[in-house]
Amino acid sequence: MKTTTRASIRAGIRSSAALAACLAGAHAQAQTAVQIYGIVDTGVVHVTNVDAAGSSVTKMPSITGEFPSRIGFKGTEDLGHGLQAFFVLESGVAIDTGTLQQGNRLFGRAANVGLKGTWGTFTLGRQQNMTYISVLKADVLGPGIFAIGSIDPYLPNARSDNAIGYMGNFGDVVVGATWSFGRDASNAGGPPATNCAGEVPGNAKACRQYTGMLGYETKAWGVNAVYDRMYGNTGAAGGLTSSDNTDTRTLVNAYVMVGATKIGAGVMDRDTRAATGRTESDLYYFGASHPFGPFTVDAQWSRRDTKHANADVAMLVGRVTYALSRRSFLYATIGHIDNDGASAVALDAGGTVGTGLSQNGVMVGLRHHF
């Protein structure tokens, strides 16, 4: 009897241990895998004609180098049946001073949570909208210091607060959209902080924003079309001081691969109906990128034609990047910009230039990914 009892106890212990091990394994599999990642990028830039007197300046830039610096945290959890939960928290950092970017937000580049499945990706929170996502597909310079973001600073800052997002890939067809109840809750100033928090009782249009994208993409070529409309409210920047004021961008871009060379081009129509009046413009860009062993060479021409005003601007930029490793890169960028009439677009993102003056610039820098 005692032998039977002891055997039963031992069998029970083994069964309990096996069950505990199974539960521990299931718990381990259900845990969120978290990744810390980022880019540290800075260097030295020299630009001419930074004021009406034609002065030059040599400096370390704050906003961007070849890429904007950032640190991020992202994680995914496998929920089974092809479904994943995820989150992204990403901060922009000014390497020259160590301060936060995107209007002093802690997680200004991204702060969102979502679900991903075979049907696509559903996202809630601050996120890149379709304008940001689409531009990067054909703009070979990306959010660099001398790039189309200098002409239209919204493009590398096209993110929306309080947003619902969707992105789906159906074969070669790409569909995406965002809807924001209040597009920009920061009043710190600058392109990424335009003081339009929205979510106003009794005024659903206040600071609303919606973007949509439809595209067809393969490895060899692709084309995308985007529509982006934002509304204003009292105190918002850019003259959008009423919910009846709007800023609308319609963008079409395309890319094609010719061997290892990527060629990209785009055109964007912008129609701003502000309290101060209506402004219309067209932005064009055309560029190419080609790798040569550890080197990558990029070149791009861009131009903004402002309708009904003498304020056109054109930019030409070249860049060489040398890969020290898979994570570390040296680069040099050279650029020239021509301002006509009342135009005062600086070559370097966040910089200054004398009204109507041309500007030359060069930057050398170092970028590291982790």
Features:
18 strands, Porin, 370 residues, mainly beta, disordered N terminus, 16-stranded antiparallel beta barrel
CATH architecture descriptor name: Beta Barrel
How much of the sequence is in beta strands? over 45%
If you compute it from the alpha carbons, what radius of gyration comes out, rounded to the nearest whole angstrom? 25 Å
As for the CATH topology, it is: Porin
**Number of distinct helices:** 3
N-to-C terminal Cα separation, in Å?
A: 65 Å
What structural class do you assign from the helix and strand content? mainly beta
The residue-averaged pLDDT reads 93
- CATH top level is Mainly Beta
How many strand segments?
18
Task: Give the domain tally.
Answer: 1
Question: Main sheet?
Answer: 16 strands, antiparallel, barrel
Low-confidence runs of at least 5 consecutive residues: 1-28
What's the order of the H and E elements? HEEEEEEEHHEEEEEEEEEEE
